[in-house]
Amino acid sequence: MQKNTSTNKIPDYAALAVAIKTWGKELGFHDVRIADANADITVIESGFFSWLGKGYHGEMDYMAKHGTKRTRPAELEPGTLRIISVCINYAPPSVKNSWDVIHSGERAFISRYALGRDYHKVLRSRLQKLADKMTVEAGAFNYRVFSDSAPVMEVAWAQKAGLGWRGKHTLLLSRQAGSMFFLGEMYVDLPLPVDEETENYCGSCSRCIDVCPTQAIVAPYEVDARRCISYLTIELKDSIPESLRPLIGNRIYGCDDCQLVCPWNKFAQITNENDFHVRNGLDDVSLIELFSWDQETFEAKLAGSAIRRIGHIQWLRNIAVGLGNAPYSVEIVQALQARLNDASVLVREHVQWALLQQNMKRTEQ
């Protein structure tokens, strides 16, 4: 944990909690809540290790290697008493309708959270500013800020803090903002008053389960990541299983289907953050255009984007699958043939598969 070194003070913790929420909103967070780091999450912890035991995490070894540090904050950061949980909306303005893009096979669908700049730095920077403000007002305390950057059960703690509830798709849901927001946390050693957990409002709805293209939501509140398109296009570094490729459609980076059908996302709020606005027209762009990007163009266009993390080879792999799933066209075949001798074995494999799909479609015409 980081420690502030200002003159030690004895704060009024109830007043400080109110102030933290005010400062957080002034910094651009849309909600700020506080959870007890010692809250009983036995059921959550048991469910998490059961999920790991089933192998549902796939190749995400980092999910398993930290043991109970992920579920017990004080084991990760000794002395942690509270978790300040924050959220910030990311739905961009003036974005192309997602379903229109998904149903247009020659266009590329990119999860809407990734259309702008990488959120990790934005959230951590804001959380650090919040910590600095607390440092001035509260005196010496220990803290550490996170945004999907360490073994933290961010949805579980956001739920405990009252930011929302875990939906059947496992994302956090809010009655005020749906699910289209980012989460961040600050572990602190301050005995702040905590907020109440909210109710679960999913009821009997199963739209997210029913719509999943790969049926990755194997049960309410349980996702087999190995089938999830977000995992397949982002986390998986090797070949995408052939049986799943046709189900991916034109989703080349992530998948929003479970969010798009969720009734609560009618309350999703448009972001005020310029960093999360659409860049490079990525909300409505052709697969062929993106497939033509060389390494230099990829790096330049996606500088500061979360997408850049997957690298150019994985990017081409994903797009090749999208092109294979697209309606037959001479232009698509030509684009694929241009990369038949790509230096990457991974790219060549997926290009060959895509060409086979295009040829099958041509013969069926």
UniProtKB/TrEMBL annotation:
Co-factor remark: Binds 2 [4Fe-4S] clusters per monomer.
EC number: 1.17.99.6
GO biological process: tRNA queuosine(34) biosynthetic process
Catalytic EC class: oxidoreductase
Binding site for [4Fe-4S] cluster 2: 212, 228, 255, 258
Reported cofactor(s): [4Fe-4S] cluster; cob(II)alamin
Signal peptide annotation: none
Residues engaged in binding cob(II)alamin: 70, 148, 172, 183, 230, 255-256
Protein's name according to its UniProt entry: Epoxyqueuosine reductase
Native source organism of the sequence: Nitrosomonas ureae
